[in-house]
Amino acid sequence: MENTQTENRNAWVFGFSPQAEIWNGRLAMIGFLAVLLTELISSQGVLHFWGIL
C-alpha cells in the first residue's frame, strides 16, 4: 500500500508532531556529540570546563 499523501519528514513544523520529534532527536545527538568531544579534548567534564564545578 502506497501513501497517496506525501509528508516531508524534514520540514520544520512547530508543535507536537513527528517532524518536531525527528528534529528534537537530531539536535540531541548533536549536543551529545559536542559534550563527548569537549570532554575528550579538554580531559575534564563539561561542568568543570565551563567552571560550574
TrEMBL record:
Keywords, alphabetical: Membrane, Transmembrane, Transmembrane helix
Domain of life: Bacteria
InterPro entries found in the cross-reference section: Chloroa_b-bind
Transmembrane segments: 27-50
Protein name: High light inducible protein
